[in-house]
Amino acid sequence: MEKSQPLFIPDWKDKRIVELLKADCRISQENIAQELNISRPTVQKRIKTLEENHIILGYTIITDEKKLGKEIVAFILLKLDRSRRAWSGTYSELLKRVNELEILEIHHITGDDDVLIKMRTRNIDSLEANLIEITQIKGVFRTRTMICLSSIEHGGIISTIIETEQRPPPKDILWNFT
Fold first, then answer.
1. Which among 21, 63, 18, 22 has a CA at the least distance from the CA of 157?
2. CA nearest 43: which of 7, 8, 10, 13?
């Protein structure tokens, strides 16, 4: 019988390492060590543990999509046919065509609609062409589209505050909770 691994629970230092890597995945382990007042080998070990426990799933870059020609961000709500067969087929088709349809995210949601898609396209014409393609996928009953005028996000990352009682405030940030 295989022994089960104990549940890994990250402490405030692990959570701060994740925050620092989210803000800049190229930050050196030495800089993280200085921020947390721990040794570089300890940081290296903690990062490896976070990766092994699937808390850190990967590292990525943030691009300026407008400079790459992707001007329009749209959110599309889909209402699907109610049959189970239609649902699974619709999801399969969307997943197969993610790149072709310029889909960034697909979410199964609650409420009046069933699916929320985030899409980034070159222009209104390409958005319209993608919407026509989506409406032709079997199982899609209705779509509703919202075009984003502006965002407060930065490359898909909004800094979050990970609260714990043991965590000291970061050196360079003044928190004001009033």
1. 22
2. 13
CATH fold for the domain made of 72-147:
Alpha-Beta Plaits (3.30.70)
Contacts (Cβ under 8 Å, ≥6 apart) of 69:
122
H helices within 24-174, ranges in order? Answer: 29-36, 40-52, 84-96, 124-135
- CATH fold of 12-52, please? Arc Repressor Mutant, subunit A (1.10.10)
Helix axes 12-23, 29-36, angle to 10 degrees: 140
Count CB neighbours of 178 within 10 A: 2
State the number of CA atoms in the 13 A half-sphere of 24 facing the CB: 6
pLDDT tens digits, residue range 129-171? 999 999 999 889 999 999 999 887 654 455 443 333 344 544 5
What is the value of pTM for the model shown? 0.69
Q: Which two tokens stand for residue 80?
A: 């699907």
